[in-house]
Amino acid sequence: MTLSYRQPGVVLTDRRFTVPLDHDQPGGETIELYAREVVASDKAHQDLPWLLYLQGGPGFGADRSVGRPGWLGRALKEYRVLLLDQRGTGHSTPANRQTLPLRGGPAEQADYLTHFRADSIVRDCEAIRAQVTGGAPWTVLGQSFGGFCATSYLSLAPEGLATAVITGGLPSLDAHADDVYRAAFPRIERKVTAHYARYPQDAERARRIADHLLTHDVVLPNGYRLTVEAFQSLGIVLGTGDGTHRLHYLLEDAFVRTPRGFTLSDAFLEQAQGMLSYARHPLYALIHESIYGQDARPTAWSAERVRAEFPQFDAAKALAGDEPLLFTGESIHPWMFDCDPALRPLRETADLLAARTDWTPLYDPARLAANDVPVVAAVYHDDMYVDTAHSLRTARAIRGLRTWVTDEFEHDGVRTGGGRVLDRLLALVRNEA
């Protein structure tokens, strides 16, 4: 049974679908997908084309918005929108420390999670498309990892697409995770340098916090162990439009004077907990590096290994000298599974995924070279999360793809730019701009 309800300016409908866990075994185990249909109130009874929104991540459910904000408002001018909670996320069958033990031990859990990459998500989309559109192709809007999925869609099932719109999510077609992170750490350093140029007072604040963490055991209210590496990982926000400001306001509230001297404030610890915990999206940590696995090479905790090639990120060395403390960015490390109570029970599962040598290709270069689906991509200049050079190389490999390269926005431009980003991309893909 479907349930429809209203918010200001929109009609929402809850949709649920049953799909195979493994699409190569359609008669086997199934999982449930949840999606929220959104249509403008004044168009609720019109026959509109469909736009499928694929969220970034991996491991995040679709946006929970109210009304018609940002890109959604632009899309609703002409589309009926489906906000899909990709498998394992949001209101779809969950995959977390509470549910994964239903699979068995770590080996069984790791095997299960191999079915949560972009290729399976694309096959989910194709499995539900007939029920949603009656079989008509739809437009897909892929943000970040959603763009990785859209690229897989163009490779695996282009017949399902009327148009593909990608924002900040053109992946390398052949880079190993090591290649991704070797390109990432210099970008991260540039973002940190830019942050300290904007807020020079934060350089000393960051050093003071790091020094405190190196000499004290700090545990956040939820049981998360706040190590200096965990503190550095707060730099992940620097790739977003307001991230530099959010980090600044966090740092300025770090210390409070007590009868026993200065210590980290409750306000700082509470904010840090919200930014660091993976309780709401553990799948992101579990399968993040596997989105770059496409052959027999294991990912083998790639970000942790590659970080060692960039000694300037070593906090102890920075504090021993005069170098600024460098924050890190979008990377997953084994210590996270020791620090975070939402991840601790899954450490062995994560180790097994990191050691796998049976990853299969997610993209088909030959099919992409022969692409005939209208496709456009926003490529953000010096995007902290997705390497610009990798994206542009992929853009050249997809027949007919048009790019919009811009430094007006950061990685989250489709969300922060109102309707401007989507409006520009739709004009480009229709040859109206």
Automatic annotation (TrEMBL):
The keyword Repressor does not apply. Keywords: Hydrolase. GO terms for biological process: proteolysis. Coiled coil: none annotated. Residues 49-251 form the AB hydrolase-1 domain. GO terms for molecular function: aminopeptidase activity. Belongs to the peptidase S33 family. This is Alpha/beta hydrolase.
